[in-house]
Amino acid sequence: MRVALGQFAVSKVWQENADICTKLMRDAHAGGADLLVLPEGILARDITDPDIVLKTAQPLDGPFMTQLLAESRNSDMTVMMCVHVPTGGQRVFNNLVTIRRGEIVAQYLKLHLYDAFAAKESTNVQPGGEIPGLIDIAGLKLGLMTCYDLRFPELARRHAVDGADVLILPAAWVKGPGKEAHWEVLVTARALENTCYIVAVGECGERNIGASMVVDPLGVAVVRAGEGPALIFADIDPKRISHARAVLPVLANRRFARPELAGTTA
Fold it and tell me: Boundaries of each CN hydrolase domain copy (predicted)?
């Protein structure tokens, strides 16, 4: 599977962001990608306005997703990104949406909200309540995560136990003391401890670190971006997964049960 990572700085204006995404989709398709992963919160971003997610949220049949869905009809490439959508209440959902051939094929509502480092995502965002199922692309099984989920190993392990070969992580990792190191350590750990590839795509710009990367099942960074806009590619090799699980059989050796979401049997 060939994956493209589309890193960019999200604007205050949804139309500008939709146009950037459309171009990234065309360029990723031209580069032979089976999958394009975009960052978290790509509808709009304004570091001076913490309530922008409420003001700019759109339903999945709104103009932002309508434009991206129209573009996706032009290829068989799968595209994943996070957008804020209305809940019908006072908050919004942070929704990881998967599209293919003009259709929405999967959704994941972010479980772990970023209430840390003086931020409080839960003020405006309602958490999801279900573990997402795996998605099949090019013969591989993919597990979905979003940004702050990275700090909680249970979701990644659940995906691996359920059969995931690759973990997908759109993010908007906020800058701060040590935060770049946290990102690299945690992305690498989730790949290595689960013998999965991880595709981690970060927003760049004034607030966020960028640093999108693909790490293989033995903890090797296959490709990485810097702090500016970028479109980078990596090849996911099933033989590398098989090799990692043969020499490092942590999934077979584990003694703990399959992780479950608290308060549910999902």
Answer: 1-238
**pLDDT tens digits, 59-81:** 999 999 999 999 999 999 999 99
End-to-end CA gap in the chain: 29
Distances (CA, A) of 258 to 23, 222, 254, 264, 266: 40, 29, 10, 13, 11
Any idea what DSSP says for residue 121? G
Which H or E element spans position 186? Answer: helix 179-194
Domains and CATH numbers, the chain: 2-253 (3.60.110.10)
Residue type present at position 116:
A
Pairing mode of beta strands 166-171, 140-144: parallel
SS3 content of the chain, % helix, strand, coil (to 5): 30, 25, 45
- The residue whose two tokens read 């990881």 is 96
| DSSP E strand boundaries for 160-236 | 166-171, 197-202, 213-215, 221-224, 230-235
CA dist., res. 181 & res. 191, Å (int): 16
Residues ≥6 apart with Cβ < 8 Å to 226: 210, 211
Known catalytic residues are: 40, 110, 147
> What is the predicted pLDDT for the residue at 266?
41
CA distance 199 to 70: 25
Could you give the 3-state DSSP secondary structure of residue 245?
helix
Residue 176 tokens read as 């701060």
The residues near 77 (Cβ < 8 Å, ≥ 6 apart) are: 25, 28, 29, 33, 34, 35, 36, 100
Residues 141, 160: Cα–Cα separation, whole Å? 9
pLDDT tens string 117-170: 999 999 999 999 999 999 999 999 999 999 999 999 999 999 999 999 999 999
